[in-house]
Amino acid sequence: MSLIEQRLSKMIEADAELTSKFIFNARIDDVSLKSPKVDLLWAKGHLVIELDGAEHRGRRMYRDDRHRDYELVCAGYLVVRIPNEEITEDFSKALEKIRSVVRLRRASNGG
Description:
Blueprint: H1 3-13, E1 23-27, E2 37-42, E3 47-52, H2 59-74, E4 78-83, H3 84-89, H4 91-109
Parallel strand pairs: 3-4
Antiparallel strand pairs: 1-2, 2-3
């Protein structure tokens, strides 16, 4: 795991609402996808969290990321992107975003 993933992993495991939900650097096996590796996966909630560092700012990477998001959405996953800077500058805001989306997915899936 990258340093930012290690930091977020510790934050998630220390959070009563999020602990044990996410798998880091998980592959999604789905016949409609090319088995992409995602930063964080909550399989039960069909939720993907992607952490975007500086390498994601180039034109080609930006385009490729959006295409992968499209494929994940078509396969039934919700994709949320969080810039690495947000985690380092205001980790409580980043955690609250993740909690909010988890709550939304629970409510829409009935549990």
